[in-house]
Amino acid sequence: MRSLRIAVLDEELPYPLTSGKRIRTFNLLARLAERHRITILCHRNAEPGEAEAARKVLQNLGIDTVMVPRAVPKKEGAGFYARLAGNLLSPLPFSVTTHTSPELVTAVADFAAQTEVDVWHCEWTPYAQVLRRALGKRLRRVPWVVMAHNVESLIWKRYAETEENSVKRWYVRRQWQKFEKFERWAFAHAMWTVAVSEDDATLIRETLDGTEQTEVVDNGVDTEFFRPQRDVERDPHRLAFIGSLDWRPNQDGVKLLLDSIFPQVKAVEPRASLAIVGRNPPDWLRERAAQIPGVQVFGNVPDVRPFLATCAMTVVPLRVGGGSRLKILESLAMGTPVVSTRVGAEGLRLEAGEHLTVTADESDMAAAISNGMADPDAAMDRADEAQRFVLREYDWAPLSEKLEEVWRVAVEMLTPSVRR
After folding, report:
1. DSSP assignment of 48-63, as one string?
2. Is 380 left (phi over 0), alpha (psi -120 to 50) or beta?
């Protein structure tokens, strides 16, 4: 099998591993770089100091990088709201227009003119627009793949269903409609679409004009890194929420946790405490947590394993989302019990009641958490069974081979003379 030249278009360099998206991208590409020549073309990482450190780590793995000197604008301040208003005049979703910068379009066009690329890989659906702008009509003559970390239109649909403010709900519905139209174009024209779950793949094929060239490459876990720590004692009353705190679905889930679920748990078990762990916690979250006894926020930690190893369980109170949750896999790989909503657990091949506890609403989740604290042995039995399943089904190595097969088939579809 010959080595392929892969060009990956993305938001930023996927390091340090502080978000689910970065974890997935890094683990797949790191393994595939052992066999293929990979170049990541992206914007500069927004956090100061990250970009150069990330470039060096990727370079050591054999991955080349082309970074444009422009970071994706942050979602704050007057400029953010001006861009939101300006997007009302665009047929494209806000995320697509924000990420389709002239600088990156030019860099991609220049790279295409100078380099013979076997497969163009859009590591997030909005970057299909960057490729379309950069290649123009040539897009029909090159193998290109879209990685759908989520079905974005499904997330925006769920935003619309849960938003209480009528003005915001109107705006969100517009974004939902724009994303649905954009995804129909991207999934219909890409040579292959890669979904992270069979649920997402079915939605793409059946309702978003995706062709049969839609493959599932599950989210996974580094099973050597995330292992049970039997010599560490768990706090039987400690809960952990772990996830990127600058992602709106996680913010919605944390707010529900603080406003409704945790107070109900605290009323039953006064010794209950909660650690909220994740990337870039907003000021409102720190301020809200400081008002609640037993709640602490830990932002941008270098390693989540100490929290997973010492808590009684991790909680996933998501109402909005898509794809699947890597943090559930990481928790279960370490033998940590998980209590989740249906939305939080969807997309994973786990059985409710056998591998984790899945709840219907916030009162149901509060009761399940309280029951888990009262009967920790039953919760640990489920976690042990889940840990064996995750080690068997969700290791990154075989998952990277599935993505490699997608790349090779994409090349063959356009150039039949190339054979595996």
Report:
1. TTHHHHHHHHHHHTTE
2. alpha
pLDDT at 1 over 80: no
SS3 assignment, position 308: helix
Residue 136 φ/ψ region, left for φ over 0, alpha for ψ in the -120 to 50 degree band, beta for the rest: left
Where does residue 293 rank: exposed (0-12), middle (13-18), buried (19+ CB within 10 A)? exposed
> Checking DSSP bridges between strand 273-278 and strand 295-299, what pairing results, if any?
parallel
The candidate with the shortest Cα–Cα distance to 259, out of 292, 290, 298, is 292
3-state secondary structure of 83: helix
Using DSSP, state whether 338 is helix, strand or coil: strand
Nearest to 179 by CA among 56, 57, 92, 87: 92
pLDDT digits (tens, 9 = 90+) for 131-175: 999 999 999 999 999 999 999 999 999 999 989 999 999 999 999
- Cite the beta strand spans of 338-413 per DSSP E: 338-341, 357-359
Q: Is 45 left (phi over 0), alpha (psi -120 to 50) or beta?
A: beta
User: In sequence order, what are the residues at sequence separation of 6 or more whose Cβ sits closer than 8 angstroms to the Cβ of residue 304?
Assistant: 242, 277, 327, 330
Question: What is the reported pTM?
Answer: 0.87
For Cα atoms 127, 130, 135, give the angle at the middle one, nearest 5 degrees. Answer: 130
Rounded CA separation 23/245 (Å) = 15
* Domains of the chain from N-terminus onward: 5-220+396-414 (3.40.50.2000), 238-393 (3.40.50.2000)
Residue 209 banded pLDDT, cuts 50, 70, 90: confident
pLDDT (tens digit, 9 = 90+) per residue, 64-102?
Answer: 999 999 999 988 889 999 999 999 999 999 999 999 999
Cβ atoms 208, 13 nearer than 8 A? no
- Cα–Cα distances (Å) from 296 to 105, 120, 288, in that order, read 42, 43, 10
Q: Is 212 helix (H, G, I), strand (E, B) or coil?
A: coil
Position 417 scores a pLDDT of 41
